[in-house]
Amino acid sequence: MDKVNQKEKYSRLIKEEAKRLGFSECGIAKAGFLEEEADPLEKWLKAGMHGEMGYMANHFDKRLDPTKLVEGAKSVVMLSYNYFPAKDLAQEGNFKVAKYAYGEDYHYVIKRKLKDLVKFINAEIGEVEGRVFVDSAPVMERAWAKKAGLGWIGKHSLLLNRQMGSFFFLAELIIDLDLQEDAPIKDYCGTCTRCIDACPTDAIPEKGIVDGSKCISYLTIELKDQIPQEFQGKMEDWIFGCDICQDVCPWNRFSKPHNTPEFSPHDHLGEMSKNDWQEITDEVFKEIFRKSAVKRTKLEGLKRNISFTQKK
């Protein structure tokens, strides 16, 4: 078999197995330096838009070049995984949690599937060297997903897909296997600015740029200190993460509910009243968020968010 046919065959096998494992889409890009992203990343960091996320300034070279992260890397296999829920639990007049955190922490759920995909590659194609990542390394996932044809980067800086919208996780394999790369697709945002207009903290200063230090997701999850007073009355009841820019995006009318049991919310999560949230105990917190990403804030962090959010 010649090299071209071999690359096509291996790529097809990997995509078929990814689909069988529950991934929504799979695209492939050639590993190398992300030239287009270098200057914007440097400017973003110099402007301090990463806030207190100091790790974003680390490993600058590795962030732009996966061959420095995984020696001998030839391909970046990008995967998306739907998490859109059957029921949106965010209600007016109640505290809100971002949809991605309703169920079990996605890092663990998706990493298990990635490891199964690697086992398949090793068994069906041959031993490969590489690493699997789920938001766990200095990898510019959205840039690679764009290169691999999974979608385009919207004005809110998230990846958008015409079939799915944006409510999906990204994950990747960086491996030393030479595969058939996919072509990027065009940007379909057009003149729409709904995400920019809807952000209550003005965290989207320009197309594709998010000032992380102003983003409600950052303020409620990443920020460990007190939330700055300038955001008082602007949180719109979000206490863990935020979905505003995604909820207003016209492309998300195409989102369809996931069928992953692990991502289903705990029964009590949809029953929590504002009063229940304000009086949440350690016992209730541990029960509802036992395997959830919400554990990242710890109970003290969640209480801080609740207290700050309810002050107008």
Number of helices, where a helix is a run of at least 4 consecutive DSSP H or I residues: 11
User: Could you list the spans in which at least 5 consecutive residues all have pLDDT below 50?
Assistant: none
Distance between the termini: 68 Å
Beta-strand level of the residues, as a percent range? 5-15%
| Structural class category | alpha+beta
Count up the domains. 2
Q: Please report the total strand number as a whole number.
A: 8
Give the integer mean of the pLDDT values: 93
| Fraction in helix | 25-40%
Order of helices and strands: HEHHEEHEHEEEHHEHHHH
- Main sheet makeup: 4 strands, antiparallel
The CATH architecture of the largest domain would be 3-Layer(aba) Sandwich
CATH topology category name of the largest domain: NADH Oxidase
The largest sheet has its strands arranged as: 1-2-7-4
Q: What would a concise description of this structure say?
A:
With 312 residues, the protein is α+β, with helices and mostly antiparallel strands. The chain has eleven helices and eight strands.
